[in-house]
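Extended Data, panel c. Modelled sequence:
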Amino acid sequence: MFTGLIADKARVISISRGAESAVIEIESVLIPEIKTGDSVSINGTCLTAIELNGDSFKADVMIQTLKVTSLGKLSEGDFVNLELATGQIQDLVDTLFKDMSMELEALLRTHQVRSGTNL
C-alpha cells in the first residue's frame, strides 16, 4: 500500500524494451530505503525492484503496462514521481526522527554547558 506522498523526483536512466516486457532503471536518492523485491510506485504505477545498482534500481514492466500507463511515454533523462510503500515510509520516518532526536539532544547539551544551566 502507498501513502500518496511523493518521496522523490527520480530520473530515468534507461528503458530496455523486449517483446513481452521491459526493464526500467531509475536513479534516486531513496536507494538506501529500497530492497530487492520492494514495491515502488513510479508515476502512480506499482512496480517491483528487481535489482539495485549503487544509486539506481531496476524494475520489470509488462508491455501492456507500458501501453496503458504514462510509463510508456518515458525516455532516458525524464523525471518521475517515486513513492515508497507505507512500510518503507515508516522506516524512513523512524530513521529521520531518531537522527533529529540525537541532533536535538546534542544541541541541548551544548546549550547547558555554555549557559551553565540544567534543562
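Strands lie at 8-17, 21-27, 39-42, 45-53, 56-62, 79-84. This feature is highlighted in the accompanying rendering.
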